[in-house]
Design brief:
The protein contains 17 helices and eleven strands. By secondary structure, the chain is α+β, with helices and mostly antiparallel strands. The strands form two sheets. A six-stranded mixed sheet has the order 3-4-2-1-11-10. Strand 6 and strand 7 form a beta hairpin.
């Protein structure tokens, strides 16, 4: 057996340690021999550790909010053990049968220790175990479906209180979700069960932190599809577009050269029957207003600060404008445009086409707006216009072809991944005016198939003489030409023109099912022209880009942006002033 010190030395050392404050750290005491102790009972080191672990586990069980700190439990543990050893009494714990409410950080009084039953000391926990809360009434019923409104509302977290770090700790499957928290669709549908909502507003940001090592190593102008950190690569694409789908809004309108623009363009660009605004807005105008700059400012004013004008091109009175979301401007390449006139006298630029091409990530886009030859019987001339445009439109010039194996030099539409061609094609219905009106009166709802059987464009497309490879969404709206200005009545002049579908939006893609149609409709509320605008909304497949794509470096029309926002603010201030005047001028009539 090992030689132990004398009992007197041990007793002196024990008394000296007992005088120390329980909150003051002290060196470990020497081991005590068996049978020695103030109370005739010794507690081994293993038992101390086992008791402390039991105490900590009980604290966790009785502290669901986990507000008790580890330092507090150590202090109380040291205090209770020190008092117990110094007095030679067993550990003092509260009774378990009749727990009385106490403050978590308070210790028990000496009177409780005196009246406590020594046989039940070891059964007392270190913390008071409160009985579970009982609800006073029944809970409202919840649907079994996880997508139910009531269940989602129960666990919904405010969009500016999202715990981004908590979301990122849920596993590898949540990494993509954390990278795409800036997407409004994810914010609106996010549900969390156990995230704190008290300390997040000032702690977390939508902006991801950037490490100095990443700044040193990352170059946006280098890296291929599989390159790590490439600006147009798969990682960045999945971060902004988890489904790899881009929302595109296309509008075409023959303005009839009117000087006066509509008072409000919201119905043209922001219809109320859609849930979300699109990522890209492309507006093509034929016979545009004389002041093209004013038209672009009005577009910017309507779309607001979320969008910037990427590019605008014109060919006479043909206008083509492209707006993109402000946070997506960095993923656009340089923009190119080209024009073609179909008139014999080229300086009269009322008929022809203007095209804009660019690459977004690794997908190339071509947008063409055109105005073909008018006349009910001039179908052949319109086909000639089409053939001239696809051969003479010189695009792309500096942009690389994303798929050169499918391109042909005789057709510009084969040199881009996704092509949208829209405008006033001037194709008519091969029916007399009276017969067309009779069919319009007979058709039920949105079924326009009886009219479309006589459409010149659909007939020529089926025969393959025009718009080869193009598609058109189903038409469920009445003919858009020709109306009397300011009303919904078709032409009442002496010419009595036959109502026709002259304004169309067609699309073509290299890969099948790349373009999905969301909506295809006309805007009946804008009546300043004899044409009604036609609107199309699409979801387009995106692919990662390569390092050979020349970036646009975030260029946009800054002066147009500032002027449009200034007008938008002025308009809102005028509305508020008018509302205040109406409120001040209102009187209350009383009857005596």
């Amino acid at each position: 057996m090992p030689n132990f010190p004398s009992a007197k030395l041990l007793q002196d050392e024990h008394n000296k340690d007992a005088k120390l404050s329980p909150f003051q750290p002290r060196p470990p005491s020497l081991p005590k021999p068996v049978g020695l102790g103030m109370g005739g009972k010794n507690i081994s080191f293993d038992e101390k550790v086992r008791g402390r672990r039991l105490r900590n586990s009980q604290e966790s069980l009785t502290d669901p909010g986990e507000t008790g700190s580890s330092t507090d439990s150590l202090k109380e543990d040291t205090s209770s053990n020190g008092q117990g050893l110094a007095s030679g009494c067993p550990l003092d714990l509260p009774p378990m049968e009749t727990p009385s409410f106490r403050i978590r950080t308070d210790s028990f009084s000496e009177t409780d220790n005196e009246h406590s039953d020594p046989n039940k000391e070891r059964l007392k926990p270190s913390r008071i175990i409160l009985s579970p809360l009982q609800s006073t009434g029944t809970y409202p019923p919840l649907e079994n479906s996880a997508a139910s409104t009531s269940l989602r509302t129960t666990n919904r977290i405010d969009r500016d209180c999202l715990d981004y770090s908590a979301v990122g700790r849920r596993g590898r499957g949540s990494e993509r979700l954390q990278r795409n928290l800036s997407d409004s669709r994810l914010l609106d549908t996010m549900v969390s069960d156990n995230a704190s909502v008290h300390s997040m507003k000032s702690t977390y940001s939508v902006l991801n932190p950037i490490r100095p090592r990443d700044v040193r190593n990352r170059s946006f102008l280098e890296g291929s599809v599989l390159g790590n950190g490439a600006l147009l690569g798969a990682e960045e694409l999945d971060r902004y577009f988890p489904e790899r789908r881009l929302g595109i809004y296309v509008a075409t309108w023959n303005m009839q050269g009117e000087k006066g623009l509509p008072c409000n363009l919201d119905d043209l660009l922001l219809p109320t029957d859609t849930d979300f605004a699109q990522d890209v807005y492309v507006i093509g105008v034929q016979e545009g207003c004389p002041d093209r700059r004013e038209w672009e400012i009005r577009l910017q004013e309507t779309l607001g600060p979320y969008y910037v004008m990427l590019y605008a091109a014109a060919h006479g009175v043909l206008y083509l404008t492209v707006f993109v979301r402000r946070d997506l401007i960095w993923f656009c390449s340089e923009v190119e445009h080209a024009t073609v006139t179909t008139r014999i006298i080229s300086h009269i630029k009322t008929k022809g086409a203007v095209g804009i091409g660019f690459t977004f990530f690794g997908t190339s886009f071509l947008f063409i707006t055109s105005h073909f030859t008018s006349g009910d019987s001039k179908v052949y001339e319109r086909i000639l216009d089409y053939n001239k445009i696809i051969e003479a439109l010189a695009l792309p010039r500096n942009l690389p072809d994303t798929n050169p194996y499918r391109s042909t030099t005789s057709d510009v539409t084969t040199r881009f991944d996704e092509v949208f061609w829209f405008g006033d094609f001037n194709f008519r219905l091969n029916k007399a005016r009276g017969e067309v009106e009779a069919i319009l009166n007979q058709v039920m709802g949105a079924d326009m198939s009886p009219l479309l059987q006589h459409d010149q464009l659909l007939k020529e497309m089926k025969e393959g003489s025009i718009f080869k490879g193009f598609q058109e969404a189903s038409i469920h709206f009445p003919p858009t030409y020709k109306f009397d200005i300011g009303c919904d009545v078709y032409d009442t002049t002496t010419k009595q023109r036959t109502p026709s579908y002259t304004d169309r939006i067609l699309y073509r893609n290299r890969q099948a099912d790349d373009i999905k149609v969301v909506k295809y409709m006309s805007c009946l509320s804008i009546k300043t022209s004899d044409h009604r605008p036609v609107i199309g909304m699409f979801q387009v497949k995106l692919r990662p880009g390569r390092d050979n794509i020349p970036l646009g470096a975030g260029q946009f029309d800054r002066s147009l942006y500032l002027e449009g926002i200034r007008r938008r603010i002025t308009r809102e201030l005028k509305k508020r002033e008018a509302a205040m005047k109406n409120q001040n001028n209102s009187t209350v009539c009383t009857i005596s």
